[in-house]
Amino acid sequence: MRSVAIDIGNTGTKYGIFEGDALVEQGYFQEQEQLPEKLQSQQFNHAIVASVAANAQDIQQRLSVTGKFLELTAQTALPVSNLYKTPHTLGADRIAGAVGAHYFFPGRNCLVFDAGTCITHDFIDSGGNYHGGGISLGLTMKFKALHTFTGRLPLVQRVEKGFPLTGQSTEESILSGVLTGTVAELNGFIQAYTEKAADLVVILCGGDAGFFESKLKGRIFVIPELVLIGLHRILTHNV
Q1: Of 93, 122, 125, 208, which is the active-site residue?
Q2: Residue 185 and residue 149: Cα distance in Å, rounded?
Q3: What predicted TM-score, i.e. pTM, was given to this entire model?
Q4: Whole-angstrom Cα distance, residue 61 to residue 47?
Q5: 114 among known catalytic residues
Q6: pLDDT for 136-177, tens place per residue?
Q7: What is the pLDDT of residue 151?
Q8: What is the model's pLDDT at position 105?
């Protein structure tokens, strides 16, 4: 079975091409109108699209799919139990990440951080029950918010390392507040969930996963393709 999984996010779109269960190719593009030629020129048995920002039907019209085209919605059958109180408001990328985590670590309690435009955390227990999580501002959004909603604070560019705990200038203080503060935020969630759930696995994905990888406490698994893998598992479950 040759299939494609497409994850339409707030700032760009990721795709993964699968041969059976193997992810053989993945890529990224920014505008839906720029759907890569390699996707439009191929024929797929099945396809799944998850979107938090756009209409999946636009993608469907430009793909050649002989079998099932699945748009991930609240009505889509899942290989896990969804205990979220308002499933119709749940971001498709969040549930896909949880499904991916359960696939990689069956029988384990999993905490998933997706660090992108927003930073989300999601908890799925060892029995495959998705409970929900939280949504917070991503790093870039925090820097922009400080500049936009104040009169004098500058727009500071993120640095990967060397930011201070105690800022001695306004720029350093912003770096400390955003970067050190967000690391502390995520470490706090890890500590809270570790006390709540034994044998916890912590997984990172998203564009800023690399920034957090070496700064969080405990053993962290970075799986950049987690959402794509989760989407493919959902597609397989439905096919």
Answers
A1: 93
A2: 22
A3: 0.93
A4: 12
A5: no
A6: 999 999 999 999 999 999 999 988 888 899 999 999 999 999
A7: 93
A8: 98
